[in-house]
Amino acid sequence: MVYSHVISSYIKVFKNETPVFDPACLNLTALKGDTVSFQVVYYSKENVKGKIRIISPFGRHLLARTVEYVKVTRTCASEDLMLKDGNHIKAEPFDAPDVLRSLRGGKISIAKNKYRTLRVDIDVPAKFKAGDYTVKVILEGENGEVLTENTQDIKIYNATLPKAKLIHTEWFHTDCIADYYGYEVFSEKHWAAIENFMKAATKRGINMILTPVVTPPLDTAVGGERTTVQLVDIAKNGDKWSFGFDKLDRWVALALKCGYEYFEICHLFTQWGANAAPKVMATVDGEYKRIFGWDTPVEDGVYPAFLAEFLPALTARLKELGVAEKCWFHVSDEPSIDHFDNYMRAKNIIAPHLEGFKLMDALSKPDFYDTGACEHPIPAINHIMPFIERKVPDLWSYYCVSQSLKTSNRYMTMSLTRTRAIGVQWFKYGIAGFLHWGYNFYNTIHSKRHISPYKPIPAEETFPGGDGWVVYPGAGGKVEESIRLMALYAAQTDLRALQALAEKTSYEHVMELIEGDLAKPITFEEYPASEYYYVTLRNRVNKELAEK
Questions:
Q1: Which helix or strand (DSSP H or E) is residue 178 part of?
Q2: 514 pLDDT more than 90
């Protein structure tokens, strides 16, 4: 006999633990153009092989996928932080439910005395008819007999989720795609996989792409290199530089086709200090070789002279492509106050060539903003309040490996509601953009070797489970989503709905819905942990939008 229950999509189901759920969280509503999700959990005292059959009015807009497990060897940034936080699911290495895998022919297997989860995500079409609908999930045995069936009711309101205003970038690691699959960089197979990864990103609200005009100098050991993924062909004959933009042209056209709206030009100086030039490859008098890198200090006169040729040619091309107004540039990632002088030298080298373009960087010291060193700072969410107090216009935010104490994040040891919580925080504080460094980073720390996100990684070589990627490299260059990506996307759809209601009512009205029943106001370290809060809030917002 197979036992099954419909449960919330925000429950992480572990193989050997009976999931506890609240039926009140299954009152599901959605707007047109929205995404609504639930799970069906199965348990059997015998091994079972069967087939999932779904009766639904949503057709191809419904995705039914199993939740698969990956081994997490490093659970948090440090044990001390985990103990201080007190709200991580697991402290020791564990099998984490994370990968969303398409059913092959609808087939599913349930291991004896192990829980098995099917996740259902419905991307409601923008022109779908409002009304009350039911989805039926049937598990059939190998001979077609019904083993168990479940139903989930969903109300679609007569209101449409508006277009996103938030600019969202998850750093797109072009090299990791080539490295994982063994593809030659920018071969046709590589381009096909790039397209798959691009489409997977924009489908879930990621609308800005890191664009490697040179190989990005990110998470690379000093003196080390990452696989070359430079989009601009560079040549020097004698004293004359020339630049080829064919690959950049193709990249921009493909990104626009896939739904990207903004382009984030990769950093022009090294990470954590702006000490050196990024890796730059060029054909010099007929020889293809590296011309700049860790051995090129920021004050070296040759690299600024190169940039004086390169950046005007690059920006002219971006204008020809019609995307210049949607391009942002970087100096160096995460400089500390000790790097201030280096940062200013680097910025002063490129700024004269980038008039009219925005410069932004992830940094957490307001001194960079106060002095005018960085007009568009991106602080980590645990360092953001001084920037909010300064009323920085169009303020962005980010989190990464260091934000594991109290804050929202996407670690596999965190609840999915903790990941979703950032949506109400974005709304409250009027955050204009969000950056994360790891859409698909499949390397060890400092990129010393390549890894598979499906396989265990030595704890000392990796980031906390979930920090480096939200998508998995499926077979044949295809992408497998994660449950964490879906929770992050829910945060974005929450924001879009909240913004829409604020436009129809007021910011104050929406904040009353958000905080009216809470003991404490929402901050980046104080927010509801219960799934019921987020389900109920969205239901109230959806209903009001339909009534306005």
A1: helix 174-181
A2: yes
